[in-house]
Amino acid sequence: VEISPTSVRAAVVDASGDILAEARRPSRASAEAQVTLEIALEAARTAVETLNSSVQRIQAVGVAAPGRLRAAEGICVSCGDFPSWREVQLAAPFGDAFHLPVSLIGTTQAAALAETRFAAAHGLSNVVLVRVGIEIDLAVIVDGRPLSLGDAPPGHAGHMVIQPGGPRCECGESGCWQALAGREALVARVVRDISSGVSSAIPAAVDNRLGAITPALICRMASAGDAVARSALEETGRFLALGLGNLIALFDPEAIIVDAVPSLVGAALSHAAEAALKTSRRAQVFSRCVLLSPSLGDSAPVLGAAAWAGLRAG
Ligand SMILES: [Zn+2]
Known about the structure:
- By secondary structure, this protein is an alpha/beta fold.
- The protein has 11 helices and 13 strands.
- Zinc ion binds next to loops.
- Zinc ion (ZN) binds at residues 159, 169, 171, 173, 176.
């Protein structure tokens, strides 16, 4: 089961990561936890019922959820995506409904586990997944299992300081990684250059509404040769590479999966960061680590939740 502020998805998944049956329902960030849980339980029952005769063969339930988790207790402590949630028991309702062991895992960790077991990083056992949005978070897979430290996975990588005195971050600090390499930083560089008079085809593409510029548009314009888009992408890639270099130094992974939505933005940022890493002074140190693109799309969290439940159930 994957619980997100826009949808709830339940799937019956086999050991090789194939989805045998599934159900999706819309959800709302403002909804009380009880309402969202009831939607998720109904979706899970529907997915299981679709399978008919195979019901008794289900071994375990995995739940992927955002926010700060006490995963071993099945609890979501708090969650930016669901502002009203406090100490919500996410696992027990599924245990009561299905009489099966239930494992809770963070959404990004689930995605990393799925990509490692079934897809982009298949066959590797030490992998970092970096999700670049407005925020940057990450999940670390060590020896094939998600790394957790205490209550929460090490997901707040977006707040490591890359440039002291740099742009202000929403956390109050200056120069955080996500303030320099997140999607808003990419857009801000383009707006800065256009506002200072550098020639670009981007204003015409958005009818001069600079607020309508998106990372996807910037990536398309960069491919078409627009100099402002290219330079913003390169600069953002250099800052992304600084953080990735730190992660490589910390975790020495075999691969880093760079994930962003839509995928063309992820691919463009990854490409820009790779170019920067290759020309860095420590390029030799980083050469053992490859940058990959995710390949499971929006199925990754639900597949990872199932994989985690399977791993825990043995
Ligand atoms: Zn910050």
